[in-house]
């Protein structure tokens, strides 16, 4: 390992839907975190690793910061806030095509307490005109709380190299934390469950996506075709009907789309069977939340 190698943890925080997971996936060049145009897509802290000749960045993607309305929400906010504590550098992401509002200003106020270097990432520059971007950067400069401001487009990849370089500037020198082959801390089962949840998020509307959890019941690699059985949990009988759809059409669509993604990830053929179950108010049940895998150290009892 060269002597001046850098390594450290970089947390990405921001309001829901600003593109945190999209950016992380783009930089590491692989789809690990699921993304959607619905807020509160990410529910866990997701670690991924990016390594180049200069150093290693361990990214922590976090749930979008919002006012929690249930225990799942509390869990998500704990996951985001504890990730800030673990970081060497904090990325705060906003969207170029939305004005900086009170919600963003409140977070910036909170970030004042953070002693680590902070980079303001202005995402979605592809969605506005160049002239408008200059105005956004000017407004952001007035915030005066950030060590750097980097405009990017996570979907197009614009300026992502520049962002990596900027992050490296602020990382401490040190040995890599993970070997070069490590991409994420997420087990294959978890990524598969998330891919199913993503396809459900894309296919469903209104409040249904927020009340969905996915559990992998079996994942059997013993045959040529991987056998997966998974349950989509929802909160109401009426939601169950919509998820299944007319003659099972909706569930089939979710299943086909999810199978395609899981096959790409595993590089193997998959036979995916989906079931739907109702668990009323699971988002407020500590027992069920833990049962669904939301059980890492960010779970604070009684909050
Ligand atoms: N036009 C445009 N859209 C983007 C860009 N980056 C992300 N998006 C879209 O923004 C939406 C939200 O992206 P996510 O990556 O899921 O956002 P997130 O910040 O991780 O959201 P939460 O997990 O809910 O906090 C998706 O529809 C993305 O395709 C970008 O650079 N340009
Ligand atoms: Mg996300």
Structural account:
This protein is of the alpha/beta class and 303 residues long. It has two domains: 6-170, Rossmann fold, CATH 3.40.50.300; 188-291, GMP Synthetase, Chain A, domain 3 (2-Layer Sandwich). Helices cover 35% and strands 21% of the residues. The protein is built from nine helices and nine strands. The protein has helices at residues 20-28, 71-85, 102-111, 130-143, 160-170, 188-203, 237-244, 249-266, 286-291, and strands spanning 6-14, 46-51, 55-61, 89-95, 118-123, 148-151, 213-220, 226-234, 270-278. The strands form two sheets. A six-stranded mixed β-sheet has the order 2-3-1-4-5-6, with helices on both faces. Helix 6 (188-203) packs antiparallel against helix 8 (249-266). The chain is globular, with a radius of gyration of 20 Å. The structure holds guanosine-5'-triphosphate (GTP) and magnesium ion.
Give the secondary structure arrangement, pairings included.
Layout: E1 6-14, H1 20-28, E2 46-51, E3 55-61, H2 71-85, E4 89-95, H3 102-111, E5 118-123, H4 130-143, E6 148-151, H5 160-170, H6 188-203, E7 213-220, E8 226-234, H7 237-244, H8 249-266, E9 270-278, H9 286-291
Parallel strand pairs: 1-3, 1-4, 4-5, 5-6, 8-9
Antiparallel strand pairs: 2-3, 7-8
Please outline what is shown here.
By secondary structure, this protein is of the alpha/beta class.
| Main sheet: strands, sense, barrel | 6 strands, mixed
End-to-end separation in angstroms reads 44 Å
Query: What is the ordering of alpha helices and beta strands?
Result: EHEEHEHEHEHHEEHHEH
Which sequence of strands runs across the widest sheet? 2-3-1-4-5-6
User: How many β-strands, per DSSP?
Assistant: 9
Work out the oligomeric state of the chains in this entry. single chain
Shape: globular
Determine the number of helices (DSSP H or I, runs of at least 4 residues). Answer: 9
User: How much helix, percentage-wise, in residues?
Assistant: 25-40%
Structural class: alpha/beta
How many individual domains? Answer: 2
- CATH class category label of the largest domain: Alpha Beta
Cα radius of gyration in angstroms: 20 Å
